[in-house]
C-alpha cells in the first residue's frame, strides 16, 4: 500500500533513485548522483539532500556510508570516505527533548560540514554537524569527530583527538618508501602488471 500525500510523493523519487543506483557500478553510480566523473561511489551509499553536496574530483565513498547533506556538505578533491561512515549535518536532539519529534518540526538544527582535500576518513567514523576537517587530515576508523580537525593531522578516538601532525616532507618520504617497496614486490611477483602492491608474502624475498 502506498500513501498518496505530499511527503510520500516527495520522498518516493529519492527511494526509487536509491533502488536503481544499487544496480550500477561505482563509476556509473557517481555519475547518476551528479558527482564528478572521476569519483567512485560504492554500494548502499545513502546521500540525504544530494543537491546540497559539493564533491571534488577523484573522491571515493565506501559501502554503506551515509552522507547527510541537508545542512550543507563539502568534500574536497582526492578524499576517501570509509565504509559505513556517517556524516551528519543536522540534529533532531532538541526535538526529541521537547517531545516535538514530528515531521516538519521547527526544532531541527542544521550546521554544514566541510571535509578538505586529500583526506582519508576511515571506516565506521561518525562526523557530527558543524565540523570542519582540514586538508590532508586522516581520521582513524571507529572515531567520532565532534570538533574541528586541523590540517595535516591524524586523529582517532571517541571523541577524536590529535595523535600526530605531519608535513609535506613526511608525506613525500612515505610516497617514496611505498613506491620503492611496491616496485620491488612487482618485480618478484608472478603478475607484475597490477597496480599498487601485489598480494602475497614478500617478506623473505
UniProtKB/TrEMBL annotation:
Gene3D superfamilies cross-referenced by the UniProt entry: Hexapeptide repeat proteins (2.160.10.10)
Region (Disordered): 181-205
Classification of source organism: Bacteria, Bacillati, Actinomycetota, Actinomycetes, Pseudonocardiales
UniProtKB keywords: Acyltransferase, Transferase
Keyword Acyltransferase: yes
This protein's GO CC annotations: cytosol
InterPro entries attached to this UniProt entry: Hexapep, Hexapeptide_acetyltransf, Trimer_LpxA-like_sf
UniProt protein name: Acyltransferase
Family per similarity comment: Belongs to the transferase hexapeptide repeat family.
Biased composition (Low complexity): 190-205
Organism field: Amycolatopsis echigonensis
Any one GO molecular-function label of the UniProt entry: O-acyltransferase activity
Amino acid at each position: 500500500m502506498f500513501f498518496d500525500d505530499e511527503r510520500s510523493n516527495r520522498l518516493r523519487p529519492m527511494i526509487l533513485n536509491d533502488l536503481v543506483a544499487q544496480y550500477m557500478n561505482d563509476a556509473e553510480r557517481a555519475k547518476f548522483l551528479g558527482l564528478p566523473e572521476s569519483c567512485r561511489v560504492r554500494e548502499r551509499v545513502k546521500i540525504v539532500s544530494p543537491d546540497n553536496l559539493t564533491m571534488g574530483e577523484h573522491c571515493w565513498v565506501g559501502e554503506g556510508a551515509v552522507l547527510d547533506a541537508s545542512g550543507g556538505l563539502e568534500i574536497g578533491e582526492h578524499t576517501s570516505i570509509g565504509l559505513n561512515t556517517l556524516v551528519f549535518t543536522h540534529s533532531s536532539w532538541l526535538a526529541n527533548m521537547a517531545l516535538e519529534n514530528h515531521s516538519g518540526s521547527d526544532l531541527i538544527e542544521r550546521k554544514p560540514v566541510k571535509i578538505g582535500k586529500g583526506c582519508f576518513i576511515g571506516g565506521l567514523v561518525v562526523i557530527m554537524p558543524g565540523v570542519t576537517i582540514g586538508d590532508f587530515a586522516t581520521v582513524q576508523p571507529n572515531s567520532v569527530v565532534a570538533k574541528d580537525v586541523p590540517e595535516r593531522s591524524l586523529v582517532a578516538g571517541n571523541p577524536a583527538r590529535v595523535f600526530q601532525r605531519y608535513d609535506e616532507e613526511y608525506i613525500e618520504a612515505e610516497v617514496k618508501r611505498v613506491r620503492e617497496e611496491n616496485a620491488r614486490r612487482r618485480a618478484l611477483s608472478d603478475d607484475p602488471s597490477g597496480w599498487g602492491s601485489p598480494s602475497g608474502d614478500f617478506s623473505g624475498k
